[in-house]
Write a structure and sequence with these properties.
This protein is an alpha/beta fold and 260 residues long. It is 35% helix and 22% strand.
Length: 260
């Protein structure tokens, strides 16, 4: 399996780590691939940490990586907003790390629905009715409707928590507006950023993740082989039965266990 591919795309949360812990032997897997000269990119829809924080966490856990090998949906969204909406006003259902990064990309933050040009939705573990109503009223007044990710849940140490997908669904029903753009997996925005980093034809790339509707769907959409790992979210038969991975793995460690 390793010889077949020159580059590997790894989802992070649920694939390389879960909650606050590295998944067993994920460090050995990554370091072995690096020793073999393989190109690696890590991708994440999670917006509650910065690229620097992800790098510090992974490198402190023993992974031989560089910061340039990490992509999250916040990074992709920031590039798009800086290019197309610099100086505009946004509101976000999201946590402070995410909001501060968007402000740093040249936008202004407001909770006044009449001032909001863009609504951004992502994981927010402090979500409440007040935030939903600010967002709803901004949409009713014509704000753009963007998401940093569309995951329904996020894996944590002892299970899963509600993520952006459920919030997006609630807002769509409340306002009769549809999400305009998603900047995380499985979007074209994400795959384009990955392609810039790897510069390898898709037939020589393997994407490894724990979620059918984002990780595996993205690979399938863009002609990249995929491996579904069992260390993250539970993939229930909820309409995603048509999304098929190339391989099923217990964990990323199977990549080097199967090396011989």
């Amino acid at each position: 399996m390793i010889d077949k591919y020159d580059a590997f795309i790894f989802d992070l949360d649920g694939t390389i780590y879960r909650g606050s812990s590295i998944i067993k032997n994920a460090d050995k897997t990554i370091n072995r691939l690096k020793d073999l000269g393989k190109k690696i990119v890590f991708i994440s829809n999670k917006t509650t940490g910065s690229i620097q924080e992800y790098f510090d966490f992974l490198s402190n856990a023993g992974l031989n990586i560089s910061k340039e090998e990490i992509i999250n949906s916040t990074l992709i969204l920031k590039k798009y907003l800086s290019k197309n909406f610099s100086g505009k006003t946004f509101y976000a259902i999201g946590e402070p790390v995410f909001i501060n990064e968007i402000i740093g990309s040249g936008l202004k933050y407001s909770e006044n629905p009449g001032e909001i040009d863009i609504l951004l939705v992502t994981l927010d573990r402090t979500l409440d009715y007040r935030k939903l109503e600010i967002a709803s009223r901004a949409l009713e007044k014509g704000a753009h409707f963007f998401a940093a990710n569309i995951d329904d849940t996020c894996p944590v140490d002892d299970g899963e928590v509600l993520d952006a997908g459920a919030t997006i669904s609630a807002l769509e029903k409340r306002t009769h507006r549809k999400l305009e753009n998603n900047f995380g997996k499985p979007s074209l925005f994400m795959i384009n950023e990955i392609s810039k980093r790897l510069a390898i034809e898709n037939s020589r790339v393997l994407l490894i993740g724990d979620r059918l509707e984002t990780d595996i769907a993205m690979g399938n959409n863009y002609g990249i082989d995929t491996a579904l790992v069992a260390t993250g979210v539970k993939n229930f038969p909820n309409g995603n039965q048509h999304i098929k991975p190339t391989y099923f793995l217990d964990s990323v460690y199977d990549l080097i266990l199967k090396e011989s």
